[in-house]
Amino acid sequence: MSLKRIVVLISGSGSNLQAIMDAIQSGQINGQIELVISNKADAYGLIRAKNAGIATCVIDHKAFDSRESFDLAVQQRIDTIEPDLVILAGFMRILSAGFVRHYSGRMLNIHPSLLPKYKGLHTHQRALAAADKEHGCTVHFVTEELDGGPLLVQAVVPVKTDDTEATLQARVHEREHIAYPLAVEWICADRIRVCEDGIYRDNELLPTSGFRLAYNEKTDSGASDATHS
Ligand SMILES: Nc1nc2c(c(=O)[nH]1)N[C@@H](CN(C=O)c1ccc(C(=O)N[C@@H](CCC(=O)O)C(=O)O)cc1)CN2
Ligand SMILES: NCC(=O)N[C@@H]1O[C@H](COP(=O)([O-])[O-])[C@@H](O)[C@H]1O
């Protein structure tokens, strides 16, 4: 099976980018990151990519007079790569309808909550404020509706009584670094199909909440809870 061509969009630290890079390096993911694009020039994820010899590009959204013109510039750069998969990894811009349609069915995002709870921003703060007993992250296909696309993988973490936003975020982050590579592994192995009635992994219809990883559960690919800070 030929390597899938991957483009990753970031805005910040890039720990999820690093987790996917590491999973490619270990042979878990049958893919190759061809380009990393950031809308922030100071994103540490750019350093991670450069250290790994991956091409990078900064497209500053503030340099454009509309969301659509920024999105078109990003799309035109992505399409020079002809990717099989576009991965949002901490990319902090809402994407316009045209951009999302252009990559329909081949664009993923990781969101720091158990969707459909807490779409948008400040998810850990909201979970703590609600005194939730559990929280987590979700890997989903990107659609025009913000954080509303089909759910592929969810990882659950407990919320502890003495949790702060930082401790909860760190616990979720660790599970993101398991969940995202797992989702990308399955897509790059052509095991995932998005159909009218839901998402199939092989011939198994996944729950509408996606494949659920319990806390500290090892993945079926045997990946450990490696950290990718
Ligand atoms: N059309 C879509 N665009 C994006 C999706 C999506 O599902 N559909 N996922 C987001 C990722 N995301 C949460 O997971 C998210 C990112 C950014 C924002 C947001 O409010 N951004 C503001 C700017 C915030 C900032 O610059 O700090 C904005 O774009 O005006 C909400 C949710 C990626 N895009
Ligand atoms: N709404 C989007 C959002 O908040 N995404 C979150 O940004 C962080 C990026 O971390 P990273 O840059 O270290 O991968 C991740 O925790 C991801 O869930």
TrEMBL record:
Residues 4-184 form the Formyl transferase N-terminal domain. Pfam families: Formyl_trans_N. One of its GO terms (cellular component) is cytosol. N(1)-(5-phospho-beta-D-ribosyl)glycinamide binds at G14, S15, N16. The record marks D147 as: Raises pKa of active site His. PROSITE patterns: GART. One of its GO terms (biological process) is 'de novo' IMP biosynthetic process. Catalyzes the transfer of a formyl group from 10-formyltetrahydrofolate to 5-phospho-ribosyl-glycinamide (GAR), producing 5-phospho-ribosyl-N-formylglycinamide (FGAR) and tetrahydrofolate. Belongs to the GART family. This is Phosphoribosylglycinamide formyltransferase. It comes from Neptunomonas concharum. The lineage of its organism: Bacteria, Pseudomonadati, Pseudomonadota, Gammaproteobacteria, Oceanospirillales.
